[in-house]
Amino acid sequence: QDYFTDENRVLKKDPQQDYHLEYAMENSTHTILAFSRELHTCDTNDKSITESTVRVIWAYHHKDMGEAGQNYHGSNRGTKSLRLLNPEKEEVLSASLPYFDLTNKDVPVPDKDTTYWCQMFKIPVQHKKHHVTKVEPLIQKGHENLVHHILLYQCSSNLNDSVLDYGHECYHPNMPDSFLTCETVIFAWAIGGEGFTYPPHVGLSIGTAADPQFVLMEVHYDNPSYTEGLIDNSGLRLIYTPVLRKYDAGVIEAGLWVSLFHNIPPGMPEFVSEGHCTLECLKEALGAERPSGINVFAVLLHAHLAGRAIRMRHFHNGEEQKLLAYDDEFDFNFQEFQYLKEERTILPGDNLITECHYSTVDRIRMTWVRK
């Protein structure tokens, strides 16, 4: 039945019944209910279902509902963030496809709020072009909330194998000079995300002279409780194939530059910042190398705890197009790629605006923006 709750957590039967039971099944271990509902019901007691993140809250009691009403669920409850209209793409990949892992080895995570750890790797696939078809996170069990995001950068090909011997804290005065050659992001993963499967006609190219030979993996550790003695071995698994696809994949980064000039005042129910990827920027970035533009097939929206909503706006010839991607219910712990229903072409001379909405209503100090 269609119920809703008020601010006192009291359940009330909705006079407008918008949920319809499709079927129900029960056995000794599971009760399964399948139901349907319109995305927009025009009922003030219902929440519209959009492409934004939806927080599904569930609860159950082992006894059926009696005449006195529902039984209290106790600890039988939970929540899960989903993107109901934009689920993760699942492609049937051959189980025999080769892969390689890029994982940290016994990294001591400091007892401080934020740490960025950098480790250099050499791509083991050489001398022949292959395509990476899927990237999976390998998060050490129990560290799901510690590892906040992972970035993979392409480095200079002129390095030698001696750079592989050690990791170091990123952005540190004593970090190796070789890390400074790693500027181009080739893959990104963030907390709550599952593996990323490239579309059937696209792959991340590896194995040729122009492809990454040395890569830097940057892992952001989030340790707000200052836990001591943590040792981490997380990383990424790259699955690849010799069967080449039509297009090579790349990454375009757009958003707010990480700097001390970007800060958010405390006590703000809403604060909006904009990052502009201007037409001059895109002309310079795409004009010579990609004059016919690039096709965007997925977007990863990324923010931190104060983030409440993100919108990726696209302008062509000064006219605003349909939003490239958005999430008006952003969940810090669920940062998953959004696959576009139709690929979008971005041309030299277009504009991109990343619009970030924050809330600091529960904070008493200035918030400084970080990676």
Automatic annotation (TrEMBL):
Among the Pfam families in the record, one is: Cu2_monooxygen
Is Glycoprotein found in the keyword set? yes
The cross-references to InterPro entries, in alphabetical order and at most eight, read: Cu2_ascorb_mOase-like_C, Cu2_ascorb_mOase_N, Cu2_ascorb_mOase_N_sf, Cu2_monoox_C, DBH-like, DOH_DOMON, DOMON_domain, PHM/PNGase_F_dom_sf
- Where in or outside the cell? Endoplasmic reticulum membrane
Q: Which region is the signal sequence?
A: none
Q: Which cofactor does it need?
A: Cu(2+)
The organism's superkingdom is given as: Eukaryota
Q: Does the keyword Membrane apply?
A: yes
Its membrane topology is listed as: Single-pass type I membrane protein
Indicate the segments forming the DOMON domain, all copies: 1-61
Give a GO cellular-component term: secretory granule membrane
**UniProt KW keywords:** Copper, Disulfide bond, Endoplasmic reticulum, Glycoprotein, Membrane, Metal-binding, Monooxygenase, Oxidoreductase, Signal, Transmembrane, Transmembrane helix
| Gene Ontology biological process terms from the UniProt entry | dopamine catabolic process; norepinephrine biosynthetic process; octopamine biosynthetic process
Which GO-annotated molecular functions does the record name?
copper ion binding; dopamine beta-monooxygenase activity
Q: Which family does it belong to?
A: Belongs to the copper type II ascorbate-dependent monooxygenase family.
Protein name in UniProt: MOXD1 protein
Species of origin reads Eurystomus gularis
- Give the organism's phylogenetic lineage: Eukaryota, Metazoa, Chordata, Craniata, Vertebrata
